[in-house]
Amino acid sequence: MHNFLHFLIVQIFKIYSLKFINLQLDIQQNTKKMTQNFNNQTQITLMTERYNEQYENNKETEIKMQQGLKKDLTDCVTKVVGEVAMKVCFALTVAFCIGC
Questions:
Q1: Average pLDDT over residues 43-56
Q2: Cα 64 off chain centre by
Q3: Consecutive H or E run containing 10
Q4: CA distance 40 to 33
């Protein structure tokens, strides 16, 4: 009877030891998956932040370019209008002098 009881205890211990080992393996695998998911989420977050920063930089650059083009256009129009005005004044002066 004693040997049988000892045998049962050893078998029960082996069964629970295997269950414990399997449980530990499951925990390790799940921990690894969770770590991978966390790392993936971190990468996605970093990529999103970089995209948003780049978008803001591009938007600022575009605004600066538009302001620069607007200034260039204004300067060009001012120059052309000034030149035309000078030629008109010169023509009027010449016409006035010829008329006198």
A1: 94
A2: 20
A3: helix 2-99
A4: 10
